Each structure stands twice: as structure tokens, then as C-alpha cells.
Amino acid sequence: MSNFAENIINLSNITKCFGSEVALNSVNISVKKGEIFTVLGKNGAGKTTLIKIICTLLLPDKGSGTVLGYDLLKEDKKIRANVSLVAPTVDVGVDPVLTVYENLMFWAVVYGLEGYEAEKRVKETLKILGLYEVRDRWAMEISAGMRQKLGIGRAILVRHPILFLDEPTVKLDVESKFTIRNFIKDVRERFGTTILLTTHYYDEAEELSDRIMIIDKGNVLAVDTLQSLKAKLSSAETIYIKAEASNEQVKSIFSMFSRFMPQYKNGIFIFKVPIFTDGMEEILKVFVEKHINIVEISGKSPSLEEIFFFVVDARYKKNEKL
Amino acid sequence: MKNFKIVLLFMKLRLRSMLLYPTGLVLDIVREYVNIGIWLFVALFIKSVSLSVQQTFTNYVGYVFIGVLIFQNADKLIKQPFLSLSKAFWEKRLEIYDTSPFGMWGLVIGEFLFTFIFNGLIQLSILLLLANFVKLPFISLRAVLIFTVDYLVFIIGIFGLSLISASTFFTLEVKQGREPVSWTVGTLVRLFSGVYYPITLFPIYLRWIGKVFPHYYILRIARSLLGLSTTVNYGSTFIILLTFAVVLLILGIYAFKKSILIAEKRSGMSVLV
To answer: Which residues form the domain of B145?
Structure first.
């Protein structure tokens, strides 16, 4: 989906403190309808607190806004009736005394579906989740990945327009993570659901997000698409130069380009060169002057993880949002 | 209707849990019987050693039997919503229930009703089994109906008290064990509301304590219908019970709703923030 319509979440100046600890500090957030918006941050950054405030499970100390056009503070019941939340722990909301089918039926009724409509929706959801074949098994007999899907299934049962996924793949193995991430994309494509996702996995954010918000210690440090974040920030590219060089030549290169954090491993020079600078040209010029035979050159644009650390580091050096 | 179905759902969940782990079910039943049995034993003992009791009461064992039956049921019901919240909290389900507009209420009401029915059935079985042993007389259908209506009104008041008790989960951050409301009510009712002995044993300036709880009035009605104590004016006693029911229900709903708001302010719904 490339063209997002209006903002479905619009909050401004959201502040929350727990005692003397500031969990969120004047956070502004706008999420467009139909997008996958990721809140990326380390543990304790304020991601879950932000999600809970938007879901109206937690009241902010300051700030205001709207979710689906409803006032965050005055119409919390209406917001809650139109959003779904999947908690970070697998098995939350999964009842061990019910089968897979019964678990979804339970939530179908709790969320207001009735009779035939509830049964139809549950069966549809089980098929979408790929859990139809295990519908009569006890919920604790299926794998953790399947149970996490069941948790997400609970959330998509009533087709709420907004889905909050709070660390949806934490504690899952690699295969389950892969399954869940594909499933999340499928949910958005199939239902046009707006998805607000929190994660501390950089690859997850890179893979799923239309836009990313980087948050650290309650402060928003950056909000944009991944491509814009890479283009906007003075981050570094990693340059790999495979070359035949003597020990003296290696020492000389290291000495001349120490600012590019050089490494030399298995015949390959590795440099961290800031983008939008002449660093690369400078290095190649010196290699030619010193008659170092270059076999191969390649590069890697900054990963989200590198951008994240760059942004956090810049924040505490310059104390400004990028 | 939708909300009623949610309540039923929580009741079915409790029943399923009980049936899947029948040892727990059996233990619950045995515990009820043993608790009543202990008090019967105590009553029999007191009656046999105390001339004063023999002279004062036509049927002291029956008197205590009815007191313990009603008190134990009420005590269990007052604690139930708090226990339901505590269990859901530690199982990290509370916030998920709160995402549904009626989820929390469904949990609290559903489990309260389940306990009322389940415990009520056990108590009824004890009553029928031991009625002869404690020499309770047969009563007319009219008396049964009077008592049933009064008892249901009493239970509404108990539900209100149970909501006040449950509200301490968030307002006082009591997350497990015995919370102060049910403990205070249980202790004062046991001592002063006529569960084991009439309040006339106390000096006049202490008798009012028992009368501030609805237990006192339902006990009087029950014993009066069974001829175990002096006759009461059923009309006026019913009005008092109804007043208790209305006031406690209103207070309970207010306290519970307020406590949820406090929890949402403090993030008291989750084990971890």
C-alpha cells in the first residue's frame, strides 16, 4: 500500500511519569490509515507505555489527541471498542482449559460477536491463521509460534481498524518469527488494518515498516521512512576493499585514515565512511599512490541498527531531534 | 443481552476449569463440609457443657448451623471478585480483558455468579443432609419463598460489598492474599452479627456494630422462619435488606469503576509496565 489517507492516530505532547522516572516526554505521534508504523527502541525506551496510552489502557499525565477521531481522554471506551492489542508475552489471552477453537470463540463473544456470525468469523480466522487443522487441540499443545498467531487471531477476529502489536515476535524462534512477520504483512494487505508495532529487533522494523519512530528514554529521536532516515542522516557506509598490501602499507593506511575506523581482515580493508563525503575517493587515491593492488570494491549502506545508534548518540551529543 | 452472554462465558470457563481438574472440585466440596462440621462439633460441645445455653436455646446446634451456612457463603462471595482480579492479573490477562468494553465486568460478575451457584449447591446439599441431624423443622412453601426473596436481595448487597473489596486491588494495590475489606467485614460479622450467638449477649453500646451489616438481618429472618429465634417483622426487615442492597450496590459499582480509572492512571493492570 503506497498511498495512505488521513491520519488515524494524532497525539501531541504525550507525557507520562512513573514516580520520578519520565517514561514519555512530550511525544507527538501521527499514524496514517493503513500503514505499518513501528516504534523502535531499546528495552525501557517507552514503547509499551506509548502503546498503552494510545489503547487507553493507561492515562497520560499530559497531552491530548484523537484515535479514530475519538478524543483520547474523554472517549476512551469508544477507542477501546475499536482497537485490538497483542501483548508481548506469548500465551497472554490464551486459555489453557480451552481448545484453539474455543479460545477464539471465547474472545469472539467477549468482543461482541454473536451466534452464527461468531462461528463464521472464528472459522475464517482459523483458516487465515493456518490453525484450522489444530482447532480441536488444547491451546497449550500447539507451538509457541502458533499460540502467538492465536493471540494475533484474537486481535483480528473483530476486524478492528487498528491493531497494536507489542513486541509480537519476542521469545519466538527464528522460524516462528518469520511466520509471524509474514502474517502481519498479510493482515495489513487483506484487511487494510493500520498496524502499530513496537519492537527492539532492527531487522523486524526494516522488514515490516512503512515508517519508523525511533524512541529512547521517553524521547522521540526520529520519525520517517527507512529510506528517508538513511538519506537524511549523516550516517556511514561500510566500504570493503579487497587488496594486496604489505604490513607496512596496511600500517600506513591505518594511520592516514584512522577517522574511518579501519580494519583489515583476510586481505580486506573495511572502512566506515560518512555518506555524502569524499571519503571514498580519498581512500582510493591513496591506494593508487601507494601502488596497492585493488582486487575488488564493495559497499553496504547503513543498517537500521547503525542508524539507531547514530541517532541515539547524536541526541546525547547535540541534544536535538533529527 | 451481549453482556449477559459475556457473563455466562466466564461462568463456563470456571466450570470447565473445575471439571478438567476434578481433584480441586472434590477438595472444595470436602472443605465446605469440614468447615460446617467443625462448627457443628463446637456447637454440640458448647450445648452439652453449658446449662445456660441449654436453657436459653431450644435448638442451639440448629442456630449455629444456620449462622455458619449463611456466613460462609457470604464470606466466600465477598472475596470472589478480588480473587478473580488477582488471578487474571498474575496470569497477565487483566489488560486483555480491559480491551473489551465489558471484559472486566464480565469477569467479576461471571465468577461471582458461578461461586454463588456452585457454593449454593454445596450448602443446599449440606442443609438437606444434616437438617434432620440438627433437628430443623419442615417449613411451608410460603416460608421458603420469603426466605428465597430475602436471600437474593441479601446477595445483591453482598455483591456490592464484593465490588468494594475488589476495588482495593487497584486503589490500595493489594495484589494477593486477604484484602482489608473482606477481612474486616468477616471479622466483625463473625463477632457481632449473631453468627454463633445472639447479639443480646453484648452490652447495648456494642450491639449496633452487628446491625450495620446485612448478615444480621438475613440471619434473623432465617432463624425466625425456622423457629430458632424470636419472630421478626418480615416486611420491615425486608425493607432494611433492600436498602442495604441498593446502597451497597451503588457504592460498590462506584468504588470499582473509580479503582479501574486509578489503575489506568497508574498502570495497575499489568504485572510489568
So the answer is: 2-266
